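Section 5.1 Outputs to date
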Amino acid sequence: MDRELNQINVIPLVDVMLVLLVIVLTTATFITTGQIPVDLAKAKETGDRQDVPLVITLTADGGLFMNDQPVSQEGLKTILAPHPREASVVVRADRVTLLERFVQVVDEVRGLGFRQVSLEVVRS
């Protein structure tokens, strides 16, 4: 057993790297924004936001979500109550959402005192 080690065994290194690659790839699929599928409207000009806004999502089937958590129509007031009124609110509405439903949600948010309410769109 007095053999001299003059080579590096790379098989354990490759095993560790493959395990790390699998971990990174599986966790990266869960870290995406907008978990709720919404077909956003298109616009030629869009704004770039630097702060983290409160996100309200309206789905095509009439579902209402606040930061990817389901909310009832009556529960929107209680969910928004603890947030500061200076916070920006972004409404993500599916393009087939009824305009009346969108206006109701925006009117309710603005009625609670939030003044920075915007609509999220995708650049066309």
